[in-house]
Design goal:
20 helices, globular, Urease, subunit C, domain 1, 21% strand, 3 domains, alpha/beta, TIM Barrel, 570 residues, single chain, 33% helix
Amino acid sequence: MHDLVVRGGTIVDGTGKPAYGGDVAIDGGILTAVSGRAGPARREIDASGAIVTPGFVDIHTHYDGQATWDPLMSPSCWHGVTTALFGNCGVGFAPVRPEHRGPLIELMEGVEDIPGITLAEGLKWDWESFPEYLNALDRLPRVMDVAAQIPHHPLRVYVMGERGLRRERATAEDIAAMFRLTEEALRAGAFGFTTSRTQSHRTVKGDLVPGQNADVEELLGIGRAFGRVGRGVFGMMSDFVDETAEFAWLERLVRENGCPAWFLLTDHPSDPDRWRRLAEHMRQSRVKGLPIFAEVAGRPVGVLLAANTSINPFSMRPSYQALLDMSPDDRLTEMRKPATRARILADAVPASFRETAAPLLWEIATGWDRMYVMGETLDYEPSPDKSVAAIARATNRLPDEVAYDYLANSAEHFLFYPTTGYTQGDHDVIAELLQADGAILGLGDAGAHCGMIVDASLPTFMLTHWSRDRSRGPRLGLEQVVRMQTSATAGFYGFHDRGALKPGLRADLNVIDLPSLTLEAPEVVHDLPAQGRRLIQKARGYVATVAGGVPTFERGEHTGALPGRLVRAA
């Protein structure tokens, strides 16, 4: 008598091999039989007409704070994720001294758009060291497993204090201390170390992040911890101002310590050929036998613009800013008044704005040709005729009139502004990157960018768009899409007990009605601590999600089970 049998589904086992029919049997939280006809069970899940996949392993999330208070880990729990890894982009909350809690909150709010009031309310700070942070994570039951990496910026501030916040050069003693703390974190169960070297990452006050211009000696010194421990992954974001020099030290770090490394790779509208150059650098590194990988996104990083999101094309106009203190409903009511509409449309973005504001804000204030009406079908690969500029030309209106009237019509109307991944106006570059040698799927950023982006739905999007619905270019095979977010991500980081449907592995799986799988419309809710605002997106079509052999979600509803735990490396 098995504990649980998933009966009669089409098994897509996560390894990339062709799908096949059969049952999946589970005992004691472990897969005991995959394929064929399983015997009777205490509980069965009917998978007739559905696919059965491993649980999804999301390696690029920002649940560093949310994981300490939220057992559901939404939105990821609604999209089949059973393992979430955070500590990405060099930001996080450990190690930390009491006097630096505020600066770390400001850092996370600025880089990842997680409300500071939410973090101040939700974080209990029952840790100082990174091992103590892991212990705090270990104490909370949850629906999925979680794992962490040690982030550079808190580490630097912990060691260097105000000098770290001011981005001063680390001394030999500072580097030695960061090395020791990184080794301590890896031995306690951290899966890696991450940093950020991009000017687009700033604190809520506009300051560059602490490790943005860290010397190569500092990074190589920290990297020696991987060689000492014998495992772990090094990850980074970088502007690659000097591409050759950046790859030179990254290759040296990997060669000297025997660790894999990844860097974030997307296209960018200001430099359309950059992604090809970086991909070629990676190829050359891999030809040398060096395990350097590129983390790539499965869809454009898309800012959603609405009347009640963090920003929209009118946020920078003084007349619109007078509406920001209103409730969302009152703001929409005011926007629909003819006098208010006329005043805001006649208003101009201040001339000084371009020099003082972040580049993204200026782009959103003026980028009508790269801003798209999302529509009820949630089109993430919109054709040129759906841009605000094209609609304006076709209807003989000004672009800001088109955008304003669309947003004022409903709180559920979103404009889609892809910041990266859409330089050519389609997903062909993304398709090429996804299939490149050394590419790892990531960048869903679950838990982050609460008021602008909700790409945590990436696992569902990969299944619906890439394997079933794409019409503007070739699709990817279902088995390939499942492998990308199960055995590929799990194997890269060393989650060796999961990521495939094989006897002996952890029983994390999804039962999915693929023909009916649908992304629901994004919503703005205020359900974070201190009524913090965030975008969420649910899905329909998940028959069940099972974590550690226990059904956690059925037909989109939480079963009440909390089998998740902290996973420690090695």
